[in-house]
Amino acid sequence: MDNSPLRLLPDELLEQIAYYLPPSATLAFGSTCKRGNKIAYEHLIWRAHCKLGWQYWQPKHDFEEKLEQPPAQTHWRKLYNERRKADNKALETFNELLKTQQLRVQRVEEVAKLGRDVRDMLLKLRNETPEDAEDVLARRWYADAILGHLNRQIALEKWTRLQNRQMVRLEEVLGAYDLFVLGGRPGDLADLDKEFDRLADAVKASHVAFDELSVRMKAVHVAAYLRSENLVGNPNVGDYHALRNNFLSIALFDEVHTSLPLQSVAIYCAVARRLGVNAKPSNYPAHVHAVIEAPADVTLDGKQKTSAQGAEPEMEFMHMDPWNSSEEVPRDQLIRRLTQMGVPPNQQQGLLAASNNLEITLRTGRNIMHSVQEARNRQRGSRGGLPYPDIECAWYAMLWSLMILGERDGATTLHRRRQCLPYIAEHFQQHFPEDLGMIERVIAPMFEGEGEHTVLAHLFEQQRAADRNAKAPFPRSTLTKNVEYKIGQHFQHKRYGYGGFIIGWDFKCTADPGWIAQMQVDQLPGGRNQPFYNVVADDKSQRYVAEENIERLYMTPNESLMLQAGRWFKRWDKERKIFVSNIQDEYPDD
Predict the structure, then answer these.
(1) Which of 8, 200, 539, 549 is disulfide-compatible with 274, CB 3.0–4.6 A?
(2) Angle formed at CA 460 by CA 457 and CA 466, multiple of 5 degrees
(3) Residue 564 is inside which H or E element, if any?
(4) Which domain of life is it from (predicted)?
(5) Within 10 Å of residue 470's Cβ, how many Cβ atoms?
């Protein structure tokens, strides 16, 4: 730089130039001369690189606190180098897991250990991998799988805190269900927090004297604002039990803001509490209401409370139903409905009072169970893209909530967990193999001393061994000459009409005798000695199909299949009309 016009510029201006350089250029600038080197080490410059380079940080970094401190108090360049090194190591591991099925789960776990520090890299892989990349489907699928795993870990942490009676907010434990279904959409717990803060500010700005209103008027005004923005309620009453209505993120961020009364009340309470209104959901039968409690020293209408000397002031409540109205719900109306339902008078007070977060979270789980059953019934016979939220992800969320949450009575809890265990084990193996470590860490201790613990230990060892060992290859040979179709081919089931793709084959049926009898395999024209194929259907299920029922398709698969294919394939080959295999270690000739 000694012979450059830059030498004439003051340090302050050179710092501003360096501030806008990318990190690699900053380092190059620092190598030009002593002045450049001094400027390239400025804390403000590397703080900016850290801030612009990554949105997500592990709590151990105390990143937000560091931003508030004087720049020189933090070694920003060192912090930048640590994050960049972690990204490079994670990307190297990620690329390795794409190459082979061997140690794939272990490598997924290695990447996931970085937690929030790896989110930015994974989001970039999922959202910015170009369509013409050689392994575009695999890269996107595994990035999304690890992000989903990280989200589920956070959900389990929130539910575990709730079960252990530790402090956790209602919107966090309900938002934990959303973490199972988000995919690439907004709505994680940080997004929910920001949105509730924004709504609280908007409510306050919508009334010039909001702080001067009584609690009763504030409660009504919050409901009126949320209803005016269509953020609570459901105009499509005929779709009341739709699965989408169980999730806060969909109610807040989707173009069509629909929800069940429970979610509407949760949104209402989250905003109201940010505005100083003590609002909580009730566990009222069939339709959750919000219960608003007056402060200890003031009535709902803003008057000073008076009480006899030494006596506790009488508690005062009101009820709101933001799903239906912005008006207060009279207490006698609620009591009358309970009486009509046949609820005894001595039980009515408990249903009118504020409920606890555990009861509301469990109620959400039961609602999701009901909605999933309806959604599966609707999906039968339908073709095309997967619905949002994903049915299997929602079902998985419900199963996990039932495993963690509930009564603390030993026998009751063990019975409930035993009922859930086969379903969660099946779901994990079929749809979420990346959760193996989470299952080992969270579920195994629940069955300590029980027979299930031995069964689980055996399952874990099987899964670890399958991941550790190379896959047994199935090459083409004279024995397999009758196997017509190949890995990655798109097909339609001749009898049932669903679409799918092939992920495995046997030269004859290898299912157990019970399955063969149940499915009446021997009644097929080709019987059990024809080739059979492991396939993935467009509803995400994995099936075993006789060759005579396979009809190859040469069209581009629908969105549902394209979203799932990355677990087994690199990309869709438009010329050959086939998925390019990423499981060639198992089927080397396909």
Answers:
(1) 200
(2) 140
(3) helix 559-565
(4) Eukaryota
(5) 11
